[in-house]
What does this fold into?
Amino acid sequence: MATGSASIACPDGARADDYSELLDILKAKGSLTQGEYKGLLTHHMQHVREATAASRPQYVPAQRHMATPTSTHAQVRTAMGHDVQPPGQIEIGGGGMDPDYVLAQAQQAAANAQASAASAESTWLATQHSMGLGGGDSFVRMAKYEPGKGLTFKAGPININLSGFINGFYTYNSPAGGMPVAGGVSTGASGFDSSALRNGLLPAGLILKLSTTQNGIDLAAVMGMYPGIDNAKNGAFNANTGGSPVGLGTAGIDFRQVYVTAGNKKWGTFKIGRDLGIFGGDAILDDATLLSVGSTGSNSAPGNTSLGRIGVGYVYADWIPQISYQSPTIKGFQGTIGILQPLDEFDFSGSDPNGTAYSAGSTQHSSPMIQGKITYDFKIGGLSARIWASFLTQHQQNLTVSRTMTVHTALLEANGGIYDMATTTTTDDAVNPGQKRGVTAEAGEIGTKLTYGPAQFVGYYYRGSGLGTTGLFFDGVANNGHKRASEGYYVQMMYNFTKKFKLVGSYGVSNLYLAPGETNPDLVRRNESEVGAAYYKMTDWLNLVAEYAHTSSAAHGPYKESDNSASGGMILLF
It folds into this structure.
């Protein structure tokens, strides 16, 4: 080895520079504040200086001298250009030095470099743990924001996601006249124009999702709260019963989502809790009126939501307690099967002039509702497509019919006048006196969604027996105990003229047929609507909406009614 004087940059300085680059990466990602960055860097450099000074050899050979630091290694610059002082220099003696001593110095420098590397690694692992990067749970940080996917926070291995939407519309509804139709969704027979500030088919929504992976199992817990902006009215449909536009009222809160999932991509996923039903789920999620108003349902006293295309193209899937299993996707195919809370047959259409309900009801269920679905997703060139088909079945037991009777009693008053005292009683009688009767409701559906460039098409069809119309099992069974058949469909076209502006047009129909042996001219035969809407995306969050809808209802007899509505507003999604 050469025995002349030299100045060698310490390997410790290189390791310190490597460590500083790690800190630079953390700072650039926002994981470290400026103060934390400087503190960690200063602490580590001081540690390296002390370790180097403590391990420096004390032997001083004759005629040695110290080389003057040069600009080439007087400072070390980090990857982001920050200047840091190296921990020191190694002094190499001059003439007459023993070569073994120089070798000992080089070995000592190598040992110092190894110690510095171990120190850097230890500090880096400690930093990871304290920030939750290595599985620690003492530091919460925010993941990179992606439009449309909510806000995600990470607490160690747990992802906390908040997403939601808020909308509001001004809707003007003008009835075109007609006579009331039992079970119809048009407001044409009301006779009065109406104005409302209201929600659309969606209320507002705030969804919390917690997710993590434990022992190879992907776990998630979801809670979705959906409040409206109008006053709520108590009734059979709770927050969806209708509005109550009077002072001192309060909005309704629909806590429709409460469920957990467990599974993985290899074995599929189980779900238990309250969520959107399997049958009819795709029909409403692909409906463009989900982001607007559609058919108003009731505009003079708006509730949490409008109808959109519910009852005029499909039956509402509803939010139902369930235990379901969704398979992994295999070559584009995926299956879902579940047992769900059974729902009652419901007389939605009301009663005839004699007080007898048009439809039977039921409250007894010895078995759950069963729903299943299969989907197939594929691409051909520039065409993206989904085809789905699903079914529903449920046994309805102990069918009854509601009868309301009013008895008038003439009472003689003291002054000689006559007072008419009316007494009203309502009874639920078996549809077949003396017998308990039940039926099995069943339904099937098929649909497709095709996307090609800026254009999109949705086509959907359903048919059921005992299913009813508008809502699940609404008017599905006649008051004689026999099932009514029903069917419906809708078609929808969407075209994106730019990345921000699109037009949508759709047409849909829902039909309800009379049961065997039934004569009921007042009952709805057909609900239909045409909807046209324009959407303008101002930002990633904010969308402006303008819409026109025409809705009509026709009975099995001569009665029919129709109405027109125009809506304008906005929906914000985050």
Q: What stands out?
A: The chain has four helices and 25 strands. The two ends are 68 Å apart (CA to CA).
